[in-house]
Fold this sequence. Notes:
By secondary structure, the protein is of the alpha/beta class. It folds into two domains: 3-285, TIM Barrel; 307-381, no CATH class. It has 16 helices and twelve strands. The longest helix has 18 residues, at 364-381. It is globular.
Amino acid sequence: METRNLKNGNLSLLGFGLMRLPVKGEYGEVDLAKGIAMVDYALSKGVNYFDTAWMYHNGNSEYFAGEALSRHHRSGFYLADKMPLMSLTAEADVDRIFKEQLKKCRTPYFDFYLLHNINQAHIKTAESLKVYENLKEKQKHGLIKYLGFSFHDRPELLQAVVDRYDWDFAQIQLNYVDWELQQAETLYRILEGQSIPVHIMEPVRGGSLANLPEEAASIFKTANPEASPASWALRYAASLPGVQVVLSGMSTLEQVQDNVKTMSPFKPLSRDERVVIANALAAYRKAAAIPCTNCRYCMDCPQGVEIPKNLGIYNNYQRAISQANPMAKFSFEMEYRLFKDAEQVSHCIGCGDCTTRCPQHIDIPHWIRVIRELYESCLKRN
């Protein structure tokens, strides 16, 4: 496993994101047995960075981290957690949540700790409640080894945040789609210029770069029949010299195995391989309509609309259209009909609350209207 040097050890280049664990049952309960098997395999292959958060899996990811990782010696892994700025209303919340996170994760300290999802709204919360100052005190007392933040906003705010505070690392969304689309290159260059180690989230863009449209997938397969589309995406992010960790939110043991293979040993992209990615990106852009990563920051909708799923089936429809699939509209209708009534787009009132919380800055009400019109056209056909 490729590693990166720390002050007192080596950090695996591949990080295990505990936000898309295998689930079971009607309510999406984390499948403990499958998840633990994935963690055990990852550790046995040299993966030692595990990332959780207060909100992941409706609050159950931290419990899973405690259950799965407490079976191993604490010195054998690095654990990252985050202060949920979106959940804070008073200074006392910081201490309360931090203590609960330590308890849930069954750990006396966090190796890496982040202010979660810094954006224009959340930085105001952090400043008014003195979150950074509180966490720096915890770092002085050994409860946090490395203090950083995750970021979902414009470069101007990132520059202000790194100028104002002292950080050990920063986490940004970066992949070959968002390098330009979400200004990931500019964000990366700001951090690189400040010599701040970069942790990468969404390298496979919520799985969309692992399940590519046929034309894009065939470009990768022609270039290297043995490499998965996901491996190209991981290598793209990991090839940047300022990157310390590339997080992958893995859902199956097969995904863990493939990602471990990609990083063992790790081979940076060659110039010719970058051309391959550029060609695949061009094909991908032709097929996908909405840049949703299924992060679910837009949820919960006040009206109950299941936003990510609706956007997802619309993207599936667009990919099917791009492949001239005659069943595209029928498949869309069948997928839509599987939603509960409350989850359907007909309940959207266009309040725009979801858009303000979307890290991708998607005009969600617009796309909800498009999806509604598409479904209505299905009904007219019937």
